[in-house]
TrEMBL record, chain A:
Lineage of the organism: Bacteria, Pseudomonadati, Pseudomonadota, Alphaproteobacteria, Rhodobacterales
Gene3D superfamilies, per database record: Nitrogenase molybdenum iron protein domain
UniProt-listed PROSITE patterns: FE_B12_PBP
The entry's keywords: Ion transport, Iron, Iron transport, Signal, Transport
Biological processes, Gene Ontology terms: iron coordination entity transport
Any Pfam family the entry gives: Peripla_BP_2
PANTHER family: IRON III DICITRATE-BINDING PERIPLASMIC PROTEIN, PETROBACTIN-BINDING PROTEIN YCLQ
Signal sequence range: 1-18
Keyword check for Signal: yes
Keyword Protein biosynthesis: no
Highest taxon of source: Bacteria
Sequence ranges assigned to domain Fe/B12 periplasmic-binding in this UniProt record: 38-298
Organism (species): Paracoccus zhejiangensis
Protein name: Iron ABC transporter substrate-binding protein
GO annotations of cellular component type: outer membrane-bounded periplasmic space
UniProtKB/TrEMBL annotation, chain B:
Sorted UniProt keywords: Cell membrane, Membrane, Transmembrane, Transmembrane helix, Transport
Listed name of the protein: Iron ABC transporter permease
PANTHER family assigned to the protein according to its UniProt record, in alphabetical order: FERRIC ENTEROBACTIN TRANSPORT SYSTEM PERMEASE PROTEIN, PETROBACTIN IMPORT SYSTEM PERMEASE PROTEIN YCLN
Protein family: Belongs to the binding-protein-dependent transport system permease family. FecCD subfamily.
GO cellular component: plasma membrane
Native organism: Paracoccus zhejiangensis
Entry membrane topology: Multi-pass membrane protein
Broad class of the protein's primary localization: membrane
Upper taxonomic lineage: Bacteria, Pseudomonadati, Pseudomonadota, Alphaproteobacteria, Rhodobacterales
InterPro entries with a match to the protein in the record: ABC_BtuC-like, ABC_transptr_permease_BtuC
MF (Gene Ontology): transmembrane transporter activity
SUPFAM superfamilies: ABC transporter involved in vitamin B12 uptake, BtuC
CDD domains according to UniProt: TM_ABC_iron-siderophores_like (cd06550)
Top-level lineage group: Bacteria
Amino acid sequence: MKAFFCALALVLPTALQAETVPVATAAGEVQAPLTPAKTVALDMAAIDTLDALDVAIIGRPDIAPPAYLSETLASVPTVGTLFEPDFEALAALAPDLIVAGGRSQAQVQPLSQIAPTLDMTIGGADLLNETTARIDAYAAIYDRTDAGTALKAELDADLAAARDAITGKGKAMIILTNGGKISAYGANSRFGWLHSALDLPEAYPGLVVENHGEAVSFEFVAEANPDWLLVIDRGAAVGQGGEAAAATLDNPLIAGTTAGKTGQIVYLDGSAMYLAGGGFHSVTGTLEQLTAAFGGAGS
Amino acid sequence: MVRLASAVGLLGLIAASLMIGAADLKSGSVDADLLVWVSRIPRTAAALLAGAGLALAGSVVQLAVQNRLVEPGLTGTPEAAMAGLLAITLIAPGAPLMLKMLAASLASMAGTAGFLILARHVPRQDPMLLPLVGLIYAGILGAGVTWVAWTTDLMQYLGVWQAGEFSGVLRGRYELLWLIAALAGLLYLLADRITILGLGEDRARSLGLNARQTMLAGLAIVAATVAAVVVTVGTLPFVGLVVPNIISRWRGDNLRRNLPLIAVSGGAVVLAADVVGRVIRWPYEIPAGTVFAVIGAGLFLWLLYAAPRPAGQNG
C-alpha cells in the first residue's frame, strides 16, 4: 500500500502538468494526457490497436494473447489479470496513462487513482465504428494522425473487399463452440457486426439480444439451415485443449445443412474475435479471412 | 393401477421428448428419420439413463450412511469426478473418453470414500448434520477444483460439467451412459445386501453381512454412475435426493423391490425437466439441471415439511 501512495504522489503532479487532448471513449469525451511516455493497456483490443499504431506499452494483463500479438507482448511485464489488475505492480510502474475497458471496465474508477485511465470498451453491433473511433483517439493521444489515417484506410479497404465477396453468397449463422456444446449469436450480439457491417443476412433472423449468445442444440442449426457457418472456437480462443470446434460440429445434423454440404464452414480466428474483438488487427484479420472464404465460393 | 399410470406417464413423456425439439419433425426441412435417430432418441435415452443413475446412486448413498437427506451431490462425488476430469485434461488433454471416464470414476470413488470416513465421525442425533458436513466437504472440494481451473484457464471447461444439460447430446456422444444400465443390473444383485446395510453397520454385521465389502461395492457403483453422468452431461442436482425419498416414503426401504421404480422415476423427472427446458424458450435451450433445481427445491421443501414423519425415526 505504501508503494501505492508514493507512486500516487509521484504521478499526480506530472499528470496535472501534462498537456491534454480531448478524445472519445466509451464513457464519453474525456481529456486524455498528450503523448504519454508510459502506457499500461489492460484491454486486448486496445493493445491490438496500439500495436498497429506502433505504440509501445509497459504493462499488460496476464493472458495468452492472440498469436499475432504474442511476439510484441512477450517482453512486456504483466500487471494482474484481465478482470483483476495488480494495483501494486501497476503503481510501481508509474504509468502516465492506463487504457482499460471490456473485461477491465469495472476497474476503470479504481485505476484512475493511479494514473489517468481511459475506458476504451468496445462492444455491441456497432463495433466497426468503435474501432475507428479508438484509432482516432489513440492517434490523437500519441500524435500519430498519419498512421491513424493509414490504418483507417486499410480498414475501409478490407471492409469493402469483404462486403464485395459476401454479397449474394447466402445466409450465415455465427456460432461459438465450447466443450462439445454450441451457442448462436445474432446481429445484436458482440459478434453481430459480421452481419450488420457486412450486410450478411442472418440464417435465423431475430436471435435474442444476448452478449453471451443463446444456448442452442444442433437441431436448431439444422432447422435454420445456414448457407454459411461462422465458427468461433472458445476453447481455442482462450488457449484451452478440449474438444475442438471441428470435432463438435462433425455430426450428421450439421453435415445436413447447406453450409455442411458445401463445406462453407469458416473457422474464424477465435482468439482475435473473442479476446481482442474490435482491435485493428483483429478486425482486419477477420475481414481478410471472410474475403478469402466467401470469395472462393461460387455465387 | 399405479404401475399402469406410471407406465402411461412415462410413455407419454418419451413421446413428447421425441416430438419436441428445435427442429420441426413435420416441416421436412430436416430429414425426420435423421432427426429422430441422431438427435431425439439419443437425447431421450440420455435423460432417462442419467436420471435413473442419479436416483439409484442417491438411494444407495442414503442407505449406506443411513441418512435420508444425503445424495451424491452432497457427498463431494461430482466435485471429485470433476477433479479427476480436470487432472486428466491437464496431464493428457487428448486422452480417449474411456480413460477420462476412468480418471473421473477413480477420483469420485476417492472423494466419496473421503465423505464416508467423515460420516463415521459425525454425531447421528441430528439428521441435518451429515448433509451439512457433506455440503461443506463438497464445497471445499469444489473450491479446490475451481482454483485449479482458474489458474489453468479452464473455468469455462469446468462450466460445461457443472451445468447438467442435454443440448450437446447426439448419437455417438452419450453412449457412455448405457454403462449406467449395466451398473443398475449390478445394483440389483447387491440390492438385498445394501438394504441390510441400511439397518446400520453393527446390525448388518450381526446378520452376517460383510459390511465393508458391501459398502465398497455400493460406493464403486455410485462413483462410476456419477462419473458417467458428469463426463457426458454434467451435474444434475437434487435428483438423487428427491426421487429415492419419495419412493421410500411411499413404499418403504426394500431396495430390490424399489429399484425399478426408483430408476424409472429418476429417469422420468430428468426427462421431464429436459422437455420443459426445450419448450420454455423454444427454440433456445434452458439446461435441464436448472429446470430440475427449481422443481427439485420445491419437492425437497415439501419432503421436509409437509409429509408426516413417523415417530422415533430420523427423516
